[in-house]
Amino acid sequence: MPTISMFYGIMISIFYGETELHNKPHIHARYQNFKASICIETGDVLAGDFPPKKLKLIQAWIEIHRDELFADWELAQSGEEPYKIAPLQ
User: Fold this and answer.
1) Measured distance CA(26)–CA(24) in Å, rounded
2) What is the pTM of this model?
3) Which burial class, exposed, middle or buried, applies to 20 when counting CB atoms under 10 A from its CB (0-12, 13-18, 19+)?
4) Distance between terminal CA atoms of the chain?
5) How far apart are CA 87 and CA 80, in angstroms?
C-alpha cells in the first residue's frame, strides 16, 4: 500500500491490483481512526467514513491532481509503483 501523499494528518494511498473491489479508480485515505475509499473521478466516498472537513480537503486535492491520480491508478493496476503527488498546501 504505497503512500502517495500526506497532508494535514491525512495519508493517501493507492493499492495494487484492486479493480475487483470497487471497479472504479479510487484512493484510500486514512486520518486518525478513520478510513475511506474515495472515487478519483467524483470525489465521492465509496466505502468507509471520514470527517466532513477532512473529506473536503481530500476532494480539493483530488480536483487539483486528478490527472496525476488517474496516471497513478493505471500504474498501480499494472503492478507498478505509483508516483508521489504533491500535498495540499
Assistant:
1) 6
2) 0.91
3) exposed
4) 23
5) 21
